[in-house]
Amino acid sequence: MNKLPKLLAALIACSSCANAVSIFDFATSSSNPTEAAATFNDSARDTYGTTDVGNGAGWGQGITTNFDGNATVNPGDQKTQGVNTTTYFGPTVYAGLNRDGFQGAAGIHNLGGNGYRIRVNNVSQTVYDNDAAVSDPGINFKAAFMFDAAAGDYVFGETDTLTATVAAPNNMGVRSSFASYRALVKADGQYYAGTLNDIDLSTMSGSGNNVIDFTENAYGATWTLMADMDVGTGGLQSAANHPNNLTVDGGAATVAGSALTGITQVGFLLDTTSNVQTGGYNFGVRAFSAEATAAVPEPSSYALIAGMFALASIMVRRRK
Q1: What are the distances in angstroms from CA 20 to CA 1, 14, 49, 153?
Q2: How far apart are CA 61 and CA 259, in angstroms?
């Protein structure tokens, strides 16, 4: 009989695992979620009645407004930036930006442009000095990207993770003084920020990208409430009416991931501060995935639990 409790525990663990699912999963490629006109037009993805022009960079700096939880980029939306007119065909994304200056914007590109990103352009000494007079030295940019989770009632289980592939150009080692990544989640209508992951810029130089994989145990993490994230007012962060709604308040309420319920969206927050520089950089996330656990067991899980007790009953009778 001493083996029976162990068997039941193992079966219960299996039933819990059966409820864990992927609620969001997306990876960029050289042709996803934007593509050069030469390969997009008349392709299998060209189903939106749009005609593209250029190299696929039309959405590269296409997000310039503050995050309000409603502004979306949807499959088939088209954007023109300079000579590039580009159709987006990735998942619906809710996105917004806080910034110190107009030298940067949030945007979307394919893998070659580092995916869901912050694009920073040239920062002159004059612009840098003017910003330093009203805030910390450097021109700061923050961007949030949120995605709808799969339909269902979800919580974070003990083994559920959030995973991101972050791409930081090596030239950020001299062009930026700070860069970070955090996971985000929307649960019961509130936004929460996960663990801060700083990018070590001191080790970066030369060309190419430093690609870093971040994996967070969502259940065990401490999540910081972003109480005022869902607002849409404000221009530059230095403006008196700007809510700085993408700044994570170190004194805000926190909650364990195990206590989050009603998870409807997942995503991430990028933060970078530019030095005086020319040439700019693209700091972004190339891939992102999230796991969660069904709050109510699915019918298959109920069947498994019933089977456990039936098996236990048979074992007990045999022992007798």
Answers
A1: 31, 10, 38, 12
A2: 36
- Residues 6 or more apart from 170 whose CB is under 8 A from it? 204, 205, 206, 207, 208, 209, 210
Token reading at 241: 């009416």
Of residues 214, 59, 90, 223, the one with CA closest to residue 156: 223
pLDDT in tens, 249-268: 999 999 999 999 999 999 99
Taking the C-alpha atoms of residue 216 and residue 209, their distance in angstroms, rounded to an integer, is 22
Cα(138)–Cα(160) distance, integer angstroms: 37
How far apart are alpha carbons 71 and 231 in whole angstroms? Answer: 11
Predicted model pTM: 0.88
pLDDT at residue number 311: 54
Q: Is-contact 170 205, C-beta < 8 A? A: yes
The mean predicted confidence, pLDDT, of the chain is 89
Euclidean distance between CA atoms 265 and 261, whole angstroms: 11
Strand pairing class (116-120; 190-193): unpaired
Phi and psi for 27 in degrees, rounded to 5?
Answer: -135, 135
Cβ atoms 70, 59 nearer than 8 A: no
Angle between helix axes 3-17 and 299-319 (nearest 10 degrees) is 170
Residue 17 has pLDDT above 80, yes or no: no
Maximum CA extent, the chain: 87
Would you say 79 and 56 are in contact if contact means Cβ atoms under 8 Å apart?
Answer: no
| Residue pair 140/273 in contact by the 8 Å Cβ criterion | yes
Separation of alpha carbons 185 and 163, rounded Å: 13
Q: Is 311 helix (H, G, I), strand (E, B) or coil?
A: helix
Q: What is the pLDDT of residues 52-94, one digit of tens each?
A: 999 999 999 999 999 999 999 999 999 999 999 999 999 999 9
Parallel, antiparallel, or unpaired: how do β-strands 154-155 and 209-217 relate?
A: unpaired
Residue showing tokens 């298959």: 300
